[in-house]
Specification:
The chain is α/β, with parallel strands linked by helices. The chain is built from 9 helices and 7 strands, in the order H-H-H-H-E-H-E-H-E-E-H-E-H-E-E-H. The structure holds S-adenosylmethionine.
């Protein structure tokens, strides 16, 4: 027998408390289903990209927000975010929007354990490159790249700070909110410098676009698409404006 009357039950549901806290029950189910969905995708691809609890929680000390990753000597600014990975469903959607093809070299900047790189390497792109700051994550990504089922494109994992890494081969750059505004700004500068040396059309996917003003401040970039995930993360799509890059080249001759 249920010890609560019908009125008590309805009351506790509508107030969102106790064992009948509908919101927390739905949330638990959602997280459970999402984790099973991720596991199924990982198994299907024969890789392991699930973040551990320690990786998601990042490093917590009073001077550093909890969503930041471990401090790295290699990082110019030290604003590196902890490892988490975007949902497989939305990564496939984003890859479809940028229409990656045989002439594309796809970079994941802050590639973590390589989920995005592995998905893209099963398409017809020329090459995939993962840039990752933390060595332990680079090692996992390299293992995943070797084991990946259905690989069609070559995968390179480069353990480096994105602000100073060689990004000059890329035509599509994916970023799942890997760092703060300072590194984002330097990374965009890095891409822009490579464009002036090797002019080409590039696209950028900025997933969880919390520092979007940094991209908006680049006259050589224009936004061409945007969508929101079920968790209300904004995924924004950018492409280079050829005239702005060419003008910069001319004014610097
Ligand atoms: C939110 S995770 C994204 C993981 C990956 N893109 C994926 O989708 O599975 C951000 C990653 O960026 C890395 N990162 C942070 N700052 C970086 C930097 N300056 N250079 C290269 N990687 C960096 C972090 O170590 C972390 O693995």
């Amino acid at each position: 027998m249920c010890p609560l009357s019908k009125a008590d039950l309805i009351g506790s549901i509508s107030e969102g408390r106790g064992v009948f806290d509908l919101h927390s029950i739905v949330r638990k189910w959602f997280l459970l289903i999402r984790s099973a969905w991720t596991r199924c995708n990982d198994l299907y691809l024969n890789i392991d990209t699930e973040p551990t609890r320690l990786e998601v929680q990042g490093v917590s000390n009073s001077a550093r927000p909890v969503w930041f990753g471990p401090i790295s000597e290699e990082a110019r600014h030290g604003d590196n975010h902890a490892y988490t990975s975007p949902d497989y469903w939305y990564v496939r959607r984003a890859i479809g929007i940028v229409k990656a093809g045989p002439d594309d070299v796809f970079f994941d900047i802050g590639s973590g354990k390589g989920r995005v790189i592995c998905l893209v390497a099963r398409t017809t792109v020329e090459k995939c490159v993962g840039i990752e700051l933390l060595k332990p994550l680079c090692e996992v990504a390299t293992r995943n790249a070797l084991r990946l089922r259905g690989k069609r494109a070559k995968i390179e994992i480069v353990c480096s700070d994105a602000a100073s890494a060689d990004l000059c081969e890329g035509t599509i750059y994916f970023m799942f909110n890997p760092f703060g505004a300072a590194t984002l700004s330097d990374t965009l500068e890095n891409i822009f410098t490579s464009l002036t040396r090797n002019p080409r059309q590039i696209k950028i996917v900025y997933y969880n676009a919390v520092h979007e003003p940094v991209l908006k401040g680049c006259p050589w970039l224009e936004k061409f698409h945007e969508f929101r995930t079920i968790g209300e993360l904004r995924v924004t799509f950018w492409r280079s404006v050829q005239t702005e890059v060419a003008n910069f080249g001319i004014s610097n001759k």
